Amino acid sequence: MDPLIKMFSIFEAYLQQKITLTPAELEHIKSLSFIKKLRKKQYLLQEGDVWKYHAFITTGCLRTYTVDEKGLEHIISFAIENWWAGDKESLLTGEPSKFNIDAVEDSEVLLFTNSNFELICREIPAFNNMVNAILQKSFIASQNRINAAISYTAEEKYLNFIHKYPGFATRIPQSMIASYLGITPETLSRVRNQSTKK
Amino acid sequence: MDPLIKMFSIFEAYLQQKITLTPAELEHIKSLSFIKKLRKKQYLLQEGDVWKYHAFITTGCLRTYTVDEKGLEHIISFAIENWWAGDKESLLTGEPSKFNIDAVEDSEVLLFTNSNFELICREIPAFNNMVNAILQKSFIASQNRINAAISYTAEEKYLNFIHKYPGFATRIPQSMIASYLGITPETLSRVRNQSTKK
DNA sequence: CGATTCTTTGAAAACAGTCAATCTGTGTGG
DNA sequence: CCACACAGATTGACTGTTTTCAAAGAATCG
Q1: Is A2 in CB contact (< 8 Å) with chain B?
Q2: CA B132, CA B118: separation in Å to the nearest integer?
Q3: Residue A181: CB less than 7 A from any atom in strand D
């Protein structure tokens, strides 16, 4: 099966679960998308580059992260199949990104240039509404993450994480969970040992 | 001067700086808004209540915060004049809010019920676009705050804060800045002393 | 002023981070 | 198929930062 057809069918299922589209609209959206396959550890975006796309993940897992002066990575977000990735700030301002995005697993991504994406939003109001609803959910999730980051202890952060994303923890190295939670891998290891004892 | 007229003129100036509206549209928006004056420390929203509005601050300063089991407050966000406040999660889900919103200074707020707000969004596409642009900026700010929360030391958090919001720090108690940064007031006090020595 | 609130300071304790070594599991090439 | 290499996880000892608790010192406001 043509990979574009297969990948797009995943996106199509995603769209149809959220909004109603005519076959012509679907075909139009499809015509404006293109595929990118990423091997594990391959970059989708590197710090310093300008991000100009909207990326929908059909399979796999990506991470968005910063690297500090000491070379430590801090994961801002994960994005798995049926979710979006990108740097909205770089996209909006045109400034070079301060984030890196790379593949945690071999992944397949559907890309839209920003101008094509905006075209779709203008032409298909339901699509625009969907995009705004996603943004709203993303914002709410961010608020909750901020609350966890400034209120919780290391243990609470971990327990909250596995409760919120059950199953996901087994899919990625623990050191990445630590990086996402803002603690060291060693601390996470100790916290896990103590939690299981209870 | 009628307080509604005065307050609305602030909102009107805000709107006209962002979008173009006809006098009739402005009048329509005005007719769907209502005033709330808040004395310092007065609640706009209490934990457990369902939030059903969109609040635009014309003067003053509000804070959104959680209270943990120990009774400690954790500030999720500040909102000053010409900015918005509310709990999008409670609004979207209809669930009781886990946040409190109260006035840090005597404040004046313009309120729209969610249904009236959505009506305006539907009737005036430019207004809807403006709302989405604000949401986008809010999301970007949240991402940056998450990055600071998981990457920075206490001192870096403070320096980043005063750099990002110059002047604002003098407007609120330092203990609230500490609460916003996720550190204790004592630590902030010490960090400030050390920073000024340098 | 006096009362309240906020900030600063000190000393001790708790927590998380660092560095280094060991252990575990996985996958690859000989 | 085994042995090895590698990446990731764990553990220990130590260090450093931040918190906690308590008290004293400013600042603010009625």
Answers
A1: no
A2: 12
A3: no
